[in-house]
């Protein structure tokens, strides 16, 4: 049901990214290309990994993750960047299987945590995560530096 993605999966992964973006009401924000995914998932300096969920040999979902580090735990962790199961396959255990595989990887490698973000309006996902035992980290607020602000900061300016 769950397998590691291969370079041949890049077009599929990009399609699933677009489907996820549409579900999250932000299809216009996807800038990734197949070349980007190929380089950063499978290139010599790969930054992330991907898992594919299948039902009867057909892809129904994916997870993109990367390694983090916790200074408080003194060990690596996993950040789940994207988890998506196609609507017609939801309720079939694929999302759970993807998360359990990430937990297995984390434990096997001695990592201290698996963490991710969820949109505050996504009640089905929040309920699903909490049913697995995940708890929100309400005391933290995510900040992001991107686009013009990122370029300005990189040049020593503030926006």
From TrEMBL:
Record has Cytoplasm as a keyword: no
Similarity field: Belongs to the acetyltransferase family.
GO molecular function: N-acetyltransferase activity
Keywords assigned: Acyltransferase, Transferase
Name by which UniProt lists this protein: GNAT family N-acetyltransferase
Cited CDD domains: NAT_SF
Record-annotated N-acetyltransferase domain positions: 1-157
Statement: the UniProt record of this protein carries the keyword Acyltransferase: yes
InterPro entries on file: Acyl_CoA_acyltransferase (IPR016181), Diverse_Substrate_AcTransf (IPR051016), GNAT_dom (IPR000182)
SUPFAM superfamilies: Acyl-CoA N-acyltransferases (Nat)
């Amino acid at each position: 049901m769950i397998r590691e993605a291969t370079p041949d999966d890049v077009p599929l992964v990009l399609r699933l990214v677009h489907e996820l973006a549409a579900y999250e009401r932000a299809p216009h924000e996807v800038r990734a290309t197949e070349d980007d995914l190929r380089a950063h998932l499978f290139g010599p300096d790969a930054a992330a990994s991907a898992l594919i969920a299948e039902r009867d040999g057909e892809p129904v979902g994916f997870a993109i993750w990367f390694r983090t580090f916790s200074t408080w735990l003194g060990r690596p962790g996993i950040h789940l960047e994207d988890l998506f199961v196609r609507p017609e396959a939801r309720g079939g255990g694929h999302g759970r299987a993807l998360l359990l595989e990430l937990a297995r990887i984390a434990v096997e490698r001695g990592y201290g945590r698996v963490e991710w973000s969820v949109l505050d309006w996504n009640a089905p996902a929040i309920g699903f995560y909490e049913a697995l035992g995940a708890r929100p980290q309400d005391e933290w607020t995510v900040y992001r530096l991107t686009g013009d602000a990122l370029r300005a900061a990189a040049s020593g300016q503030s926006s």
